[in-house]
Design brief:
This protein has 488 residues and is mostly helical. The protein has 27 helices and three strands. Strands 1-3-2 form a three-stranded antiparallel beta sheet. Strand 2 and strand 3 form a beta hairpin. The longest helix has 20 residues. The radius of gyration is 25 Å and the shape is globular. About 3% of the residues have low confidence.
């Protein structure tokens, strides 16, 4: 009865004592029709019960005198899941833990509510670790309220968890457009992380604060923050950190108006996120790349990236971002079929309704472009009729509209990147080529050293020579180069 919205077998076992078999207990309850198995994630079963039965179970729990320790176990189970999410080192790990946590919104609300009164340290720990959970489910207002309430409680929260909570509060405030409060939160997060000399803690607030500072026009400070962020990502040397740092380079170049450089970084970020294995990360990079391509007048390229991004977002059920990607795709193809575009805009409005995900300045410009051009070409009444029709489309119908429009567009010639004889054109040795291939697989220096039975110092020497010979700025750039030239 402690669970809200259902539970997994693993969660039930976490509530049981060491000598208890949760599966046997649940099987008995299923046989008695008190608990119902429902579809879970993959092959993992999930269980639920009628609300009246759950209320009765809670009454019995309270009468037993065991409610406090059971609620503490309930809380710590979800703290452990959230910590796994926050500590993800690859995009594949991040996708996995987000998928595990998505059905647990009711349980997360329940444990946070209880913990704020009874376990405030754990409440702040949990709220801060759920940064990407709140962001990618587009639960900005709710997530910010929980983390701010947790920070406001006078507790003995460690510097590590306090820094993380401030960074999460800042991220949520930034995405809500509250830049002043976001900067204050990021500054506190960075100060605490620097006190601890913790590069993992520094990475997110440094990168996010860069975007806030650019909004204020302080380019010099933004550059310094970006350099600091990159140094933290290199120090961590994890696939996801490097991919995020590369994407943030692209975001900074976009903010500074250097669109060719932004495109190069964001193309690199797409590759880096693919190497990291994250569907969500790839979609984020594709979305930002599409914005840059559109700003550069490449509507066809933008349409492809928006289309791929919306498929990626849909695969991980990030519906708020799906809606924005549908609007982006509509803006990119508005000259081809304004009536279909109007339908897509109507469908996107339904997807976004109630989510509370505000559009960025770039998103607003894209949305306005799609609406104004479609309305101009169709006329007010036909535009309104098509928009209304779009609001009744199923998700399958939306995908069909997108695919029909995408297939009608002709791919232009692209710059070819034929496989090159790198040993002659770039002077790479055979061993350096092997290192390039392993970098493209996302291997760390330690893993490469183990593969060749050499020291990490030797591997770092190879990496420095590779960067110099190829005139590339980072490991992620080497990985992207390898993919383009058929080495990975």
């Amino acid at each position: 009865g402690i669970f809200v919205g259902g539970f997994t077998l693993e969660a039930a076992q976490a509530m049981a004592s060491e000598d208890e078999d949760a599966l046997a207990g649940i099987s008995a309850l299923v046989t008695a029709s008190l608990v119902t198995p429902v579809g879970g994630i993959g092959d993992e079963p999930r269980f639920t019960m009628l609300e009246t039965i759950r209320e009765y179970a809670l009454e019995q729990l309270a009468a037993s005198g065991d409610e406090q320790p059971v609620r503490k176990s309930h809380l710590l189970h979800f703290v452990a899941l959230a910590e796994q999410l926050w500590a993800s080192t690859t995009g594949a790990e991040l996708d996995h833990w987000l998928q595990q946590l998505r059905p647990e919104t009711g349980n997360i609300r329940a444990v946070l509510s209880w913990a704020l009164e009874h376990e405030p340290v754990e409440a702040a720990r949990l709220a801060g670790a759920l940064d990407t959970f709140w962001i990618h489910l587009s639960e900005l207002s709710e997530g910010r309220e929980w983390v701010e309430r947790a920070l406001a409680v006078d507790n003995e929260l460690s510097l590590h968890n306090r820094s993380r909570a401030f960074a999460t509060a800042g991220w949520l405030a930034k995405d809500q457009g509250d830049l002043v409060q976001a900067e204050a939160y990021f500054t506190r997060a960075i100060d605490l992380a620097r006190t601890l000399s913790d590069d993992r803690l520094l990475l997110a607030p440094l990168g996010l604060l860069t975007e806030v500072v650019l909004e204020h026009g302080d380019v010099a400070r933004a550059r310094q923050l970006q350099d600091d962020m990159w140094a933290s990502a290199v120090a961590i040397d994890e696939p996801l950190a490097m991919a995020v740092a590369t994407l943030n380079h692209g975001r900074m170049a976009t903010g500074m108006g250097d669109l060719p450089q932004a495109q190069a970084y964001l193309e690199e970020a797409v590759t880096a996120h693919r190497i990291s294995g994250g569907t969500l990360g790839v979609a984020v990079a594709q979305y930002f790349l599409a914005e840059v391509l559109m700003a550069r007048g490449n509507d066809l390229g933008a349409a492809k990236q928006f289309r791929d991004a919306l498929h990626g977002y849909a695969a991980v059920t990030a519906w708020g971002r799906v809606g924005l990607a549908v609007e982006g795709f509509a803006a990119a193809v508005v000259g081809r079929n304004p009536e279909a575009v109007a339908r897509l805009l109507g469908a996107a409005a339904v997807i976004l309704k109630g989510i509370g995900l505000p559009r960025s300045r770039e998103d607003v410009a894209i949305y306005d472009r799609a609406v104004q051009r479609a309305q101009s070409e169709l006329g007010d009444d036909p535009f309104a009729a098509a928009w209304a029709a779009g609001q009744h489309l199923s998700w399958e119908d939306v995908l069909a509209e997108v695919e029909a429009l995408a297939s009608a567009m002709t791919e232009p010639a692209t710059d070819a990147h034929p496989p090159a004889d790198l040993t002659t054109s770039h002077g790479l040795t055979r061993r350096e080529l092997e290192v390039v291939r392993l970098l493209a697989e996302g291997r760390t220096s330690r893993e490469i050293a183990d593969a060749f039975s050499v020291s990490e110092r030797t591997v770092e020497g190879h990496v420095m020579h590779i960067l110099t010979k190829l005139d590339l700025p980072s490991r992620a750039a080497v990985a992207a180069f390898a993919v383009r030239h058929g080495l990975a």
